[in-house]
Write a structure and sequence with these properties.
Length: 106
C-alpha cells in the first residue's frame, strides 16, 4: 500500500469523525494542565460528554466556583473597589486644562 495513500485515507477518516462530532453539538478542545491533573480533566470531560444529572451537577459546581460575582448594587461596587489592592495607591488625577482642538462637523 502506498504510504501517501494511507495518510490521505487517515486524514479523511479524521475529518469525517470531527465533522460528525461537531454536527452532534460537541467541540473538540485542547488544554494544557499539570500532569497530575490530566486524569481529572479527562474524567470531568467524560462526565460532561455523557450528560445527565451528574453533568449538570458538575456544570453548576464549576460555574459557581469559577465565575466572578457581578456587582448588583452601588454598595457592592464600592466594597469591591475598597477591597482592591490599588486602594492605597497614589494616582495623579489632575485634569488637563489645555484647550481642545477644533472639530469640523460639516
Amino acid at each position: 500500500m502506498n504510504p501517501s495513500n494511507l495518510k490521505t485515507q487517515q486524514a479523511s477518516r479524521v475529518s469525517r469523525h470531527r465533522k460528525r462530532i461537531s454536527t452532534g453539538g460537541a467541540k473538540r478542545v485542547e488544554v494544557t494542565v499539570p500532569l497530575q491533573d490530566a486524569p481529572l480533566v479527562k474524567a470531568i470531560a467524560g462526565a460532561l460528554r455523557s450528560g445527565g444529572e451528574e453533568a449538570e451537577l458538575i456544570r453548576r459546581s464549576l460555574h459557581q466556583r469559577l465565575t466572578a460575582p457581578t456587582a448588583k448594587t452601588g454598595a457592592e461596587l464600592v466594597a469591591f473597589l475598597r477591597a482592591s489592592p490599588l486602594t492605597d495607591a497614589d494616582f495623579a488625577t489632575e485634569r488637563d486644562h489645555s484647550t481642545g482642538r477644533s472639530a469640523d462637523l460639516a
